[in-house]
Amino acid sequence: MERHLDQELKELNKDILKMGAYTEEAIFKSVEALKNRDKELAKNVIDSDNNIDKLELAVDEKCIDLIARYQPMAKDLRLITTGMKINAELERIADIAVDIAQRTLEIVDKPLLKPLVDIPKLSAVAQSMVKLAIDSFVRGDIGLAKKVLLSDPEADNLRNSIQKELVEDYMLKDASTVSRAVQLLLIARFLERICDHTTNIAEDVIYMVQAEVVRHHPEKLK
Amino acid sequence: MTKIVTNNLNLWYGAFQALKNINLDIEVNRITAIIGPSGCGKSTLLRVFNRMNDLIDGVRTDGEVLIDGSNILDSHADLVVLRKKVGMVFQRPNPFPLSIYENIVFGEKIHADDNTRDKLDEIVERSLMDVLLWDELKDRLNEPALRLSLEQKQRLCIARLIAVKPDVLLMDEPCSTLDPQATARVEELMRELKARYTIIIVTHNMQQAARVSDDTGFMLLGELVEYGKTEQIFTAPRDKRTEDYITGRYG
Q1: Alpha-carbon distance B232 to nearest alpha carbon in chain A (angstroms)
Q2: A137, A82 in Cβ contact below 8 A?
Q3: A72: chain B residues, CB-CB within 8 Å
Q4: Which H, E and C letters describe B81-103, residue by residue?
Q5: What fold is seen in the domain A4-221?
Q6: pLDDT tens digits for chain A (222 residues)?
């Protein structure tokens, strides 16, 4: 028997999927803008954030409306509350894409410090983690959520090697590179933060599916 | 501390088995809600606790129901003492066609012979204070109880129970005839009373069970499918049948 609430929950899933797609796009464009020194694309990321903010508010409103009207219980309740948390994580990720775009605008007119290799790699990891995390939510798939959690060390390692290279090969050797290197350091840090947000999403999905809180309990994932 | 324990409790109405092997521990000073669809056996289970089912022809029970360690199903159990200790509030408030005062002292007059007017006055005042009716009714004690509002009648019925100092209050859909505000006030009263009594409520209203109870049992077709802390039952039920019922998928 399909309930009216089931229809509403499908709509909610669609909206969160859309939120995830916008967010992925924002990360992709922000790093493309950096790679290609494309001011217009960076500005586009900043301008488009408004749409993500609007969608975030709409999803939040929808969740509150569903709670008020249906008084959901058990897995319905877990799905809606998890949806609200994921929505907030995605909005935060999109804000970080804006941060990356803003850092890009700071360095885009200055000479290129070095060819970008690891930052695009870290960006690809971040995008793939966002995609996996959203898929795990929409499909209620714990296996995908665990994959997200397993990807996080890769992101940490990339961030560390970017940091090491920028500090040791550039900043310590040539003070004139510091202002540009700091922007790249920040961007690497932002991308790694995005990955951290996706792990929050994955932990929320595990709670949604099996009603077990794994957040702050890494031993439960073993 | 455990107040009531059922061990392998079965009950038949003639050939129909209404309760199937119920094993349940009910804690003191907590509110326990029993939920489940119509005909699942929840009211039958409630009525076992003060042996109200004895009034129905063809009822047969086996297993044990221990209240404070004594088996109330024992043929030697004193039903008058049991029903003083385990009182019941029904779906429709059922005050006697007597004055408010006489409703409250009715039980005490049956159970004790040494009633002075002062003692009875004290019981009336204490019982009405306990159900937060004293200020409203203290100047109307001789009026017929049947003139009260539905909510006041239900509170009066609770006061009438409390007057004989029970340990356990059984409530069978106590708010189903009340409007939302009156329901909220009765639920508030239940929360206040649980400090002194063990309360078991049967309700169709899952939101009410979720709001008011500490522990919840879900029954289906005479079985106790799942029993646990209310927050666990309503956020993370372990049995799919519980999940289906509380999310409205049952049926």
Answers
A1: 9
A2: yes
A3: 247
A4: HHHHHEEEECCCCCCCCCEHHHH
A5: Methane Monooxygenase Hydroxylase; Chain G, domain 1 (1.20.58)
A6: 778 899 999 999 999 999 999 999 999 999 999 999 999 999 999 999 999 999 999 999 999 999 999 999 999 999 999 999 999 999 999 999 999 999 999 999 998 888 888 999 999 999 999 999 999 999 999 999 999 999 999 999 999 999 999 999 999 999 999 999 999 999 999 999 999 999 999 999 999 999 888 888 777 776
Cβ distance A5 to B235 less than 8 Å, yes or no, reads no
Domains and CATH numbers, chain B: 2-246 (3.40.50.300)
Contacts of A1 in chain B (CB under 8 A): 249, 251
pLDDT at B81 exceeding the cut of 80: yes
Here the ipTM equals 0.75
pTM, to two decimals:
0.84
* Tokens of residue B175, six digits: 């708010």
- The reply to whether residue A73 touches residue B210, judged by beta carbons under 8 angstroms, is yes
Inter-chain touch B243–A75, beta carbons under 8 Å: yes
Q: Residue A128: which of A20, A3, A1 has the closest Cα? A: A20
Q: CB contact, 8 Å: B58 with chain A?
A: no
Look at strands B198-202 and B31-35 and give their pairing.
parallel
Nearest to A46 by CA among A98, A96, A99: A98
Measured between CA atoms, the residue of chain A closest to residue B246 is A73
In terms of CA atoms, which chain B residue is nearest residue A3? Answer: B249
| Residues of B in Cβ contact (< 8 Å) with A77 | 234-235
CA distances from residue A100 to A60, A154, B193, B223, B246 in whole angstroms, order as listed: 25, 20, 59, 59, 46
Q: Is B240 on the interface with A (CB under 8 A)?
A: no
The structure tokens listed for B57 are 């022809």
The chain A residue lying nearest B232, using CA atoms, is: A74
The closest of A35, A39, A42, A20 to A93, measured between CA atoms, is: A20
In tens, the pLDDT along A90-125 reads 999 999 999 999 999 999 999 888 888 899 999 999
pLDDT in tens, B213-222: 999 999 999 9
A73 with B247: Cβ contact below 8 A? yes
* Over residues B236-241, mean pLDDT: 94
Interface residues of A toward B, Cβ cutoff 8 Å, are 1, 3, 5, 71-78, 211
B249–A3 C-beta distance less than 8 A: yes
